[in-house]
Write a structure and sequence with these properties.
heterodimer, A: 60 residues, alpha+beta, Alpha-Beta Plaits, two-stranded antiparallel sheet, two-stranded antiparallel ribbon, 17% helix, 23% strand, globular, B: 398 residues, alpha/beta, FAD/NAD(P)-binding domain, D-Amino Acid Oxidase, Chain A, domain 2, 3 domains, eight-stranded mixed sheet, seven-stranded mixed sheet
């Protein structure tokens, strides 16, 4: 799953712009991850702060 | 909020605000929604803009001018510096704005003109009819209402989603997303009236570090690097921290700003039936400098100029709105975007040695006026070793 470390996130929207699936949405200071996410990791790579990570954990 | 407007604008940054003001001046009913609770915050910007360019849209006001800039200095990886003086630095000479105040002023002007502004209110989906946009579902405080409009303008910035919801791919390629971090640093010694740009693959791979003075003993110190070069342990924030440790160890960060700037080509088409894209959402930020304020204002105003005619004629289909797309592409702005994208594509391939020798040779060039053509011609002349790279560039932009 794609993990959002909210204590690191600067809610800038950089990740939203590069997501090829349109799975990310920034609502003020809250980044949401939609069902469309394929865990491609592009967002995690570009994040200026390192607030995103593709992990082996399964979403609950 | 009404259930029907002539123009519905998604986003309250400079592009959306100038569009709303222009629409009202043309006698149109306009609503603007901004998802954040405040206009102008958080800032996502290095805040530099050319003086002449800005004057086309708003009267300069000391309330939102943090510093006036007379010169630009470029610093090569080996420390060689070159200065672009007032008369030859072109549009990079100008102001450092206080965007929190600037953006509020723009939206204030729109509101004064009669535009309806809604904050903490966001578009969550388009309303489509036979595949064409006829409005948007708007959410505020948990309630969703349907708002119809002759024309919807997507001014939703770098994180634009509205186009995607309408089936238009607005994804920025990873390698053309500049991932950025910036501190407002206080209690530092920086030269006033001078912007500084640091180049180098160690300092800022496929990007640059900027130091923009902001009032006395303070500056925006920030960096943008290509998304391609970003990763764990070497992100924009890591590069920024090591730059600050080296150059401004005494600096006190009073604000941390992060963000993304697209340096790709603009959207293939910036209009669709009843739909227009402006500013960062149209991907019209400058691919070389990353500047986007003027581009937002220019496209925002032009879009409404065209939309108002289309509305008056009762046809807001793609064909009628194409005048906007053709308009900005054939303008000086459109040409600069095309040219600067080509220059950027070459710039990102240059090694530190090449960057050093370019900066060294530019500092020897005597130019009355700074423009890209003269610059490249002169570079080839004084630096024949670079003719291979720069020759291709020269051929591509002439």
């Amino acid at each position: 799953m794609l993990k959002v470390y909210r204590e690191i996130c600067g809610y800038c929207g950089c990740c939203v712009a590069v997501c090829p699936e349109g799975a990310l949405e920034l609502i003020d200071a809250y980044l949401s991850v939609g069902q469309e996410c394929t865990q491609c990791g592009v967002c995690a790579k570009v994040c200026p702060l390192g607030a995103l990570e593709v992990t082996n954990e399964v979403a609950v | 909020m009404k259930s029907q407007y002539d123009i519905l604008i998604i986003g309250g940054g400079p592009a959306g605000a100038i569009a709303a003001k222009t629409a009202k001046e043309k006698g149109l009913e306009v609503g603007l929604v901004e998802k954040r609770p405040a206009i102008g915050a958080p800032v996502r910007c290095a805040e530099g803009i050319g003086k002449k360019l800005l004057a086309d849209f708003i009267r300069p006001d000391e309330r939102w001018i943090a510093a006036e800039i007379e010169r630009a200095t470029i610093i090569a990886p080996d420390g060689t510096t070159m200065e672009l003086a007032h008369e030859m630095a072109g549009s990079e000479v100008g102001y450092i704005l206080d965007r929190k105040v600037f953006d509020r002023e723009l939206i204030w002007q729109a509101a004064d003109a009669g535009a309806e502004i809604f904050v903490k209110t966001r578009a969550i989906a388009p309303i489509l009819e036979e595949g064409k946009v006829i409005g948007a579902k708007i959410e505020a405080g948990g309630d969703v209402t349907e708002v119809k409009a002759d024309v919807v303008i997507a001014a939703d910035g770098v994180e634009s989603k509205f186009g995607k919801w309408c089936g238009i791919d607005t994804t920025v390629p990873m390698r053309e997303m500049e991932t950025c971090a910036q501190y407002v640093l206080a209690d530092i010694n920086v030269p006033q009236n001078v912007t500084q740009f640091y180049l180098g693959n160690e300092t800022a791979p496929e990007g640059y570090v900027w130091v923009f003075p902001k009032g006395k003993r303070a500056a925006n110190v920030g960096i943008g690097i290509s998304g391609k070069k970003s990763g764990p342990g070497h992100r924009a924030i890591d590069y920024l921290n090591s730059f600050v440790r080296k150059h401004f160890p005494e600096g006190k960060p009073i604000e941390l700003i992060v963000g993304g700037v697209s340096v790709c080509k603009p959207l293939e088409c910036t209009v669709s039936d009843n739909l227009m894209f402006i500013g960062d959402a149209a991907r019209v930020s400058d691919p070389l400098t990353g500047g986007g304020i003027y581009n937002a204002l220019y496209t925002g105003k032009l879009a409404v100029d065209v939309a108002s005619k289309a509305i008056a004629n009762g046809d807001t289909g793609k064909k009628a709105l194409m005048e906007y797309d053709r308009g900005w592409r054939s303008s000086a702005l459109g040409k600069a975007l095309e040219r600067n994208h080509k220059i950027k594509e070459i710039f990102i391939t240059l090694s530190d040695e090449k960057l050093n020798s370019i900066v060294r040779s530019i500092s020897k060039i005597n130019m009355k006026e700074f423009d890209t053509f003269t610059l490249i011609k002169e570079l080839i002349r004084v630096n024949p070793k670079l003719s291979l790279e720069l020759g291709a560039l020269w051929a591509s932009i002439r």
